[in-house]
Amino acid sequence: MTTRGQTQQFDKALFKASVEKHLVTTYAKTPETADSRSWYLAVGKALAEISTGSLLETEKQLAEQNVRSVNYLSLEFLIGRLTGNNLISMGLYEEVSAAVEELGLNLTDLLEEERDPALGNGGLGRLAACFMDSLAAQEYPAVGYGLHYEYGLFSQSFEGGHQVEAPDAWRGIEGYPWEVVRPELGQTVGLFGSVETYTDKAGTICRRWVPAMTVEGVAWDLPIVGYDNKSVYPLRLWECRSPAPFNLARFNDGDYVGAQYGQLEAGNVTKVLYPNDNHDQGKTLRLMQQYFHCACSIADILRRHFAAGNKIEDLAKLESIQLNDTHPTIAIPELMRILIDEHKLGWDAAWAISSKVFAYTNHTLLPEALERWSESLIADMLPRHMEIIFEINHRFMTLVEEKWPGNNEIKRKLSIIEEGQQRMVRMANLCVVSTYAVNGVAALHSELVKRDLFPEFNELFPGRLHNVTNGVTPRRWLKFCNPGLTELVNEKIGTEWPAKLDQLSGLAKFAEDKKFQKRYLAVKKDNKQRFADWVQDNMGIELDTNAIFDVQIKRLHEYKRQHLNLLHILSLYHRLLNEPTFDMHPRVFIFAAKAAPGYALAKDIIFAINKVADKVNNDPRLGGKLKVVFVPDYRVSLAEIIIPAADVSEQISTAGLEASGTGNMKLALNGALTIGTMDGANVEIREEVGDENIFIFGLLVDEVLKQKEEGHDPYRYYHADSLLRASLDLLNTDEFTPGNPGQLSAIRQNLLDGGDPYLVLADFADYVKAHEKIDAEYRDQATWARKTILNTALVGKFSSDRSIRDYVNNIWKLKAVSVK
Ligand code: Z2T
C-alpha cells in the first residue's frame, strides 16, 4: 500500500469518531439503530469531509499560482459510485476497511449501499469521468462543469421481457454524501426577451440582451480525488432553481420526460437527463439545459479568472474550454456576448480571445446525432446569441468566398446555417469554425472526420483537426474492479502500474509461463464465480463457470448490432437441434443494455433477446450448452462486476460507425479477447495486442461504403446462406413466444425488407466463422491463457492518462502543478 498521498495523515480513532458523529448528527441514527445504509452514508460523509478540505486547499494553491487550466464542459459525467474509488485514490482503502471493521461493519457490504450517480448515457459521459480522474491523477489543473440532474439515466427493469423505465433518484432522500453545495458560487441566467440598441457614455452604438426572465444556478461540487497525490479537483454541477414558478406548458413535450416525471415543474430545467445516446431529439427543454449549463459555467470561469487578478485580455492564455461534443456549443456565442456586450471589446478583439479558448471533441459521425437547432427556437430563447451566430457565419462565408470564389455549392455545404423550409443552425459547423482544435476519439474516426465529415474545413483550417484516442482509468477499471488480478500483477511487476499503465507490458514475458497461466486463469474463474453468484441471487439463473462468458455490454443501438449477436445465438440454437455432428464448448451470452425510451426497434431487440433467453435457458435438448442472460439496469457498478468475468468481448459495430468505444478497452484490459470489426479503437487494440490475440471479422469501412453505394441486397444473403435463413426464419415462428408467432418479426422485417441499414446480413457469415475460431481456441486452455494474458499486458496505451497527456501536449498546453 502506498505511503505517499494522504495515507500518512490518517488517524483511525479520529476517523471512527467522525463516522459516529455523522451517523448521529447528520443522519439521526444511533449505532444501535443504524442500518447498513446509514453507516454507508456516515462513512461517505466522514471521507467527503477530508476530500472537501483538500478541494479547497487545491483551489487556493492553484489560484495563488495563477496557472493555466482546462475547463471540461459536458452535459454528462457518468461517474459511478465514488466511495470505493476515492478510497483507492486517497490510499485509504485498507485503513478504512480496518476502521469500519472495528465498528462491526464490512467495507465491501457498505460500498454496495451506494447508488450509482448515473449522470450520463454511456461512452461520452463515462469518458468525461475517466478524464477527470486522469487530470487529477496527473495534476493537470482542471474543472469539470456539468449539470446537477435531479434524475439521472432511468433505471431499467423487464416486464414480460419488455423494458420498463423508472426515474432514477440517485441522491435518495438523505442526499449524496460526496457532494457539497457552494451557495457563494450561484449564478443568474437569462432566457427569452429581446435585444435592444443603445448609445453608451462614449457615444458608441451598442447592442444588449434584455431577457424576459431569469433562473438561478446553484453549484454543487463533487470531489475528483487525485490518485496518490494531494490534488482534489471539483466536478461542478449546476442545479437550476427558479425564484417563482412560470408557465412551462410550452415546454411540455408530451414525451418520455413529460410522461415519466409528470408536468415539469416550473423552471426545473435540470430535472432529468435526456436518455438518448448518439441521437438528437431536438427538444426545447434540452436547449434550455444546454444554455443554462453554458451560462453558469462561462460565468464561473470568468469569476475565477478575475478573482485571481487577471485581465480579460489574458483569458486565452490562462483558460482552455473543451466542448464535449456539440452539446455545450452555445458557450461560444455566450462568451462572445459577454466579451462584446459586457466587457465592451470590439468583434475582432473578442474573436481573437474566444477562438483561442475553445476546443471541440467530435464523438460520432451518425447523422441523426449531429445537433441542429432551428433558428427560430434559438432566436426566441436566446435572441442575442442568434445575432452573434449570424455574424460568425457572415464572416466565415467571406472566408469561404475568398478560398472558393463564386462556389455557392461549397458555401451551402459549409455554412453554419442550413437553408430549407426552416433554417437550422448546424452546431458542429459552428464548432469547427469557432475553435482552435477539433479532435476525433480514435485514429480511424479522426481520419473519417477529416475525409468524410469536414474535408473542406481541413483545407480551410490546416492543422486544426487532431486525433486523441480515448482511454479508460486503470484505477477504476482494473485496480478497483479486479482485486484478484491486481494482486497477481502487483506480485509480478510491482505496484506502480495504476499510474503508469505501459508497465503492464512487463507481464508479457509470463504469457507462456505455465504457473502464471494457471494463476491468471484462476483469477478469471473467481471473477466468473462472483458474477455467476450475482446472477443467481438477482436473476435466479444458474451459470457454469466452465462455459465461455461472452459479453456485449453497451447502449442498445442498431449500429452496435446486438441483433447480429442474437442471429448468431439463433444459429447455434438451430445447429444444436438440427446438425447431429455439431458440437460447441458451453457458452453464456451476456447482454446488458438500455434502449432509449423512444427507440422502438431497440426495445424490440431487447424483447427478442429476453424471449430467446427464456427458451434456451430452460430447453433440456440443448444440454446446458447455451445460456443467454440479459442483465437488467446496466450501469457502472454492474460493469465493474461483468468486465472482470468476461472471456469474450463483443465489439461488432458496422465499420465506420463506432467512433471509438471504451468498453472494448476495459474488457481487453481485464483479459477478455475481442471479437470485433475494424472499427473505432478496435483497430488500435489489434495494433497493440497483435492479430493473433484478437478475432477480427467483417467488412472494412470502405467496403461498407461501397456496398451501400452499389445497393446492399439483404435477400441475396438470405437466399445464399441456409444457416442465416434458418436463423432469421426462427424470428417468424412462435418458438420463443409460444402461441404468439410474429412477436419477434419486426427485427427480421427490418433486416430483409427494411434494407438492413447496418449490413448485419453482410457480416453474418464471417462473424459465425470468427466465433467458431473462438470455440476452438478456448478449448486449448494454454493457447487461451497466453492470449488473455497478452491482452492485459499489451493494452497500456488505453489508459486515459495517456489520452489526457495527448490533450495536454497537443491541445491544452498545460503544466502539471503538484499540490503541497
Ligand atoms: C456517446 O456516448 C457517444 C457519442 C455521441 O455522439 C453521443 C454519446 Cl451520448 C454525439 C460515444 C460513441 O458512440 C463512442 O464510440 C465513444 O467511445 C464515446 O462516445 C466516447 O468518445
TrEMBL record:
Q: Which InterPro entries match?
A: Glycg_phsphrylas, Glyco_trans_35, Pyridoxal_P_attach_site
Stored Pfam families: Phosphorylase
| Modification N6-(pyridoxal phosphate)lysine, positions | 666
GO terms in the biological process aspect are:
glycogen catabolic process
Q: Which UniProt keywords apply?
A: Allosteric enzyme, Carbohydrate metabolism, Glycosyltransferase, Pyridoxal phosphate, Transferase
Q: Which GO terms describe its cellular component?
A: cytoplasm
Please provide, alphabetically and separated by semicolons, the GO molecular function terms listed in this UniProt record: glycogen phosphorylase activity; pyridoxal phosphate binding
Protein name listed in UniProt: Alpha-1,4 glucan phosphorylase
